[in-house]
Specification:
about 110 residues; about 10% strand; single chain; extended; mainly alpha; two-stranded antiparallel sheet
């Protein structure tokens, strides 16, 4: 009986989670967002349109101002080794992309 209850709870949770994503979360998604660079947004977006009557606070719940440059650097240091900077990672990525594209004969040089 306990296993059936667990399965039912699991199913109900996923139904509500799916409903939240499909109906509520997507309603407030900003479709033009391209990574962290454009964050924090200055206004709330509803159905893809900026609502100028609803400015955001650009702060975290504890009151800290959101700083995506610092956040990205901290995330990078957590997930990589060697103290790589965002600029260095981008440079390495473009070098790798250039090499791969040359390998398949696509381009002479991307950057």
């Amino acid at each position: 009986m306990e296993k059936k209850r667990e399965k039912l709870v699991f199913l109900i949770f996923h139904i509500y989670f799916y409903r939240y994503l499909e109906i509520e979360h997507l309603l407030y998604c900003y479709e033009e967002a391209n990574g962290m660079a454009s964050l924090p947004l200055r206004f709330v977006y509803v159905d893809g349109a900026r609502d100028p009557s609803r400015p955001t606070t650009a702060t975290l719940p504890n009151g800290d101002v959101i700083n995506t440059t610092n956040s990205y650097s901290r995330l990078l240091s957590f997930f990589t080794s060697g103290g790589i900077t965002p600029e260095k990672l981008r440079e390495m990525g473009y070098r790798k992309l250039d090499a791969l594209l040359r390998q398949v004969g696509e381009k002479d040089d991307v950057h």
